[in-house]
Amino acid sequence: MTKKAWRKFGFILLVTAISSLMVVPVYLLFKISISRPDEVLTQHPTFFVHHFDFSHWHDVLVSGNLWAPLRKSLIVATGTMIFATIIVAPASYAISRLDRKVKLAYIGSLFFTKMFPTVGIALPIAVTFTKLNLVDSDVGLILAHLINELPFMAWILLSTFSAIPKALEEAAMVDGATRMQTLRKIVFPVATQGIAVAALYVWLNSWNKFTFALYLSLTTQTLPLEVYYYVQRGSFFETAAYSTILAIPVIFITFILQRYLKSEYLSGTVK
Amino acid sequence: MKWFKKYHLELLLVLPMTFYILGFTLLPLIRTIILGFQNRYTGKFSLSTYQALFARPDFLKSISNTFVIALLSLSIQIVIAFIIALVLKQRFHGRSIIRAIVLMPMGIPTIVSGIIALYVFGTSGYFNELLFKLHLITKPINWLTGNFKGLLIIALADMWKVLPTLVLLLLAGLDSISQDIYEAAELDGANSWQSFRFITLPLLKPTITMAVLLRAVDVFRIFELPQVLVGKSVPFVSTFAYEEYDIGDLNGSGAASTILLLMILVFAILWLKFVDRGGSFGNDS
ipTM score of the complex? Predict the structure, then answer.
C-alpha cells in the first residue's frame, strides 16, 4: 500500500474506534436489559443477544415500583423548568441591558457560585428543609434543583439576549411602543428559541440530578435514586432496565437539541 | 437616584434571581463553613472538628484521591477530546453522522454512565471479555477493587460522559482559528506538527482554560460515579462529606465541604495565575 492509502486506513480505524467508544456502552446497557441471565452473568458474557428475554422489563413495568419515582421525576423536572424560566428569563434580559462593567461583575459572580461544592450546599438545605417539613416533597426538591439551574440557565440566556441589538428596542420605542410592549412583542419573540433550548436543558439537568434527591428523600424516590437503590441491591437486570428508562427521554431530547446547540452556550462567553 | 430611575425596571427583573442565589446558595454555604468550625456537642466555636478529621486516615485518603482523580481525569479528557475534535475538523464522508454519534453520551445521565461502567469493568464484564478474546489476559481482572484501578475506572467513566461537551468546546475554538494563518505557515515551510504546536495550541489557550476550569470544578466535586462504582472503599472528599451527613455528623460534613471548596478555589487561582496568566479572563474586553 502507498503511504496515502495507509494514512486513509489509519484515519478510518481512528473514526471507527471513536464511534465504538461512544455507542457500544449504550448498546451494552440496553442489551443487558433484554438478555437471558446466562448470557450476562458468566465468565464470558456475549456481545450479541442470542436469546431475547423481556422478563426484566415485564418485572419492572408490573412491579409498581416504577410509576411513583417516574411521576416524581417528571413533576420535579417540569416544575424546575417552569420556575427557572420565570425567574431567569426576565433577569437575564435585564442584566444584558446593564452597563458592561456591572454585567461582567454579575456574570463573574454567577461563575463563582458554580464553584461551590454541591455537598456543601445540600447539607444546610437538608437541615433547613427537615425543619420546614419540605423533605420528600416535590416543592422542596424543585427549590433545591433551582439552585444549580438558575445560574446555568442565566449563562445561556445572557448570550441569547446579548445577541439582540438594543437598536431593535429603540426603534420600537420611537414608533411609540411602551417599554412593556417592546418587551412582549419584540424582545421575547426574538429570544424564544434560546429560551426554549435553555428550558429543555434545565429539564434534562433536573431529570438527571441525583445528589439533592439523595439528601432530600426519606420515603419517596426520583428515578435516578431508584436506579441507585437497585444497584446497591445488586439486581443486575432491573438496574439495566431502569437505567434505560431513565436514559431514553434524555437521548431523544439531546438529539433534537443538537441542532440548536451553540458553542457559546457551553462556554458562556458573552459578546 | 437618576441611575435608579433609569434602571428601575432592570432592577425589578434582576431582584428575584439575585435573592434566590443569595438565599439558597451563598447563605447555605456560609452556614456550612460555620458548621465546620463548631464543636459537635457544645456548638461553641472550635477547631475540634478539623482536628478530628485530619486525624482520620480515610479523610486524608479522600483528599489525595480527589487530587489524583482531578489530575488524571482532566489530562485524559483534554487529550482524548482534542484528538476527537481534530478528527471531526477534517472534511470526510459521513462527518455529520460521526458528529452526532460522538455527541451521544451527552444525553446519558451521570448515574447511568456509572452503571454502564459497572457492567463493562466488572470481573465478568465486557472489557475483560474483550481482552480475553484478544488473548491479552487469561484470567479476569477485577477493575473495581484497589485504589488506583478504581480511580482509573472512575476517570474513564467521567471522561466518556463529558467528552461530547469538551469536543464541542474545542471544535468551536478550532473553527475560530482562521485558515489563512495555517496557509501562511505552510508557505514559510512549517510542517503539520509545527503548525499544531505554534499556531493551534497558543490560539486555543482561552478555550482550553475555559474547558479546564469548567471540568476541574466538576471533577473535584465528583460524587455520583464513586458512589455507584466503588462506594466507601475509595473515598473522595464529596462522598466523605455525604457519609458524615448520613451518620448524623453535620459538623464533620460541613468541615469536609469547606475543605473541598478551598481545594477548588486554590486550583482555579493557581491555574489562572501560572498556566493561563490572564490569557482568557484578563483581556476579555
Answer: 0.85
